[in-house]
Design a protein that fits this description.
111 residues; mainly alpha; 4 helices; 72% helix; 0% strand
Length: 111
């Protein structure tokens, strides 16, 4: 809902500024001027005055886009890569135990 509110609010600001600039009638460049000023003003107003709504809309979009479902083959590949990486780290640092925290470090390694 935050995405819809933010989008409509920003579109409303853009439309008001855009049509206000069109009313000025600057000749050949009226449309381009109205478009650029409308975009810049709507961005600035939304950034400065609608920050909470902008952040909420961004978080809502991230939630929608962040939920990626992996196929069975992708999940198997990820598990295999994790296992290979774990074996590599155990070979390079034999004192490292992935199932314990920093207290598992030997006393000489603690500074």
């Amino acid at each position: 809902m935050a995405v819809l509110k933010y989008s409509l609010l920003r579109l409303g600001v853009f439309a008001a500024v855009f049509f206000g600039c069109l009313y000025l009638d600057l000749g050949r460049f009226t449309l381009l001027f109205a478009l650029l000023v409308g975009l810049l003003v709507s961005w600035a107003v939304a950034y400065l005055f609608f920050n909470r709504l902008r952040v909420a809309a961004g978080q809502q979009l991230a939630g929608w886009l962040g939920r990626r479902r992996y196929s069975a083959s992708e999940a198997d590949d990820n598990a295999a890569e994790d296992e290979i990486a774990e074996r590599y780290h155990q070979q390079t640092d034999p004192a490292r135990d992935p199932h314990q925290g920093p207290e598992a470090d030997p006393p000489a390694a603690r500074g």
